[in-house]
Amino acid sequence: MSELNGNEKLYRRPTGLPARPSMPASIQSGDLMLYGANTVVLFYRSFATTYSYTRIGRIDDPGGLERAVGDGSVTVTFTARHTK
Hints:
The chain is built from 1 helix and 7 strands. By secondary structure, the chain is mainly β.
């Protein structure tokens, strides 16, 4: 994932995913969102936003996330956990 804006990492997929965007008003550290149909975004800092995203997940414990991802490109692996 590439660095963007000092608060997020992004990956542009070669193909799109189903999207249902909404405006969250604020982003929380650990949010995993889809921007448009093909850009996966992992946020490591909280902030207010006016952009629309499709929520696709969340890191349960984002403490230390900013330090872990650093300020350059990083390889990230996600594992889904299903909740009821």
